[in-house]
Amino acid sequence: MKIKEITDVIEAFAPLSLQESYDNSGLIVGRPTDEVHKALLAVDVTDEVMDEAESEGCDIIITHHPIVFHPLKRFNSANVVERCVERAIRQGIALYACHTNLDSTADGMSWRLATMLGVSDLEVLQPKTDGERNGFGVIGTLAEPMPTTDFLRKVMEVTGAKAVRHSDIATPSVSRVAVCTGSGAFLIGEARSAGADIYVTADLKYNDFMTPDGAVTVADIGHFESEYCVIEILFDILSKNFLTFAVRKSERSRNPINYLTK
Known about the structure:
This protein is α/β, with parallel strands linked by helices and 262 residues long. Helix content is 31%, strand content 25%. The protein has 9 helices and 11 strands. A 6-stranded mixed beta sheet has the order 5-6-8-9-10-7. Helix 1 crosses helix 9. The termini are far apart.
C-alpha cells in the first residue's frame, strides 16, 4: 500500500490545515508514493520504538509527536533526533506524525480522553471559529456527580498516571469536567468560564495552580499519560479503513519521565 493512501485517511479525520504554525505534522521521512506493508503506532519516535519497528518488520511509524521540530544541520547521531531520523532513512522506515491537527480536530485527542473518563455531552472548550467542533479542549458532564478525590483516582486508573498534581479542591464533588490533552494551561480561563468543576490537563507550572483562585480544581496528569490514547485513535482510524493492512500498537512507547514517590 502506498503511504499516500494511509495518510489520506488520517488527514481526512485530522486535516493538516488544523495544525498550529509551530508544528511539523505530516510525512517527515519517506515519499507519498513509497510502498509500505505494516505500520507501528506510538506516541514518540525513540530508539526503543525504532528497535520495535525493525524487529516486527514495520516500514512506517505513525506517531503523535513529530520527531523533527527544527531544521537538522547534521546527521551524525549526536542526539536521539538525528540518530532516529538517520536510522529511519537507512532502514527505509517512513515517519509520519499527527500532532496538533489531531489535538484540535473534532472527536480527536481531548474528545477521546474525556470519553474514557466517562464525560459525555461534549462541547469544544476553545473552538477554532464560532460554531465549529474543531478546536482545543472539551467540556462535558458526568452521568452522576462524583467526589472530587474519587474522580482523580479514576483519572489515574484510566490513564495509568502514577501521580496527579492538583490545585486546592474547589468543590467536594465534580459534575462538569473539562479536558485538554497535552500542555493545556492556556485553557484554564476557558474551563473556569465554562463552569467546569475540574480541569484535567498536563504540563502546568507552579503559578498555574493558583490561577483558578478556588473556582475550579486543576489537575496535571502528565503529558504522556494524557496523550497515550493517540495509539487507540490511530488504530481505530486505520483498522476501520484498511481491513488487510497490518497495524501494530507499540509495546515500547514509553513515558520519558520517571517518578520517585515517598
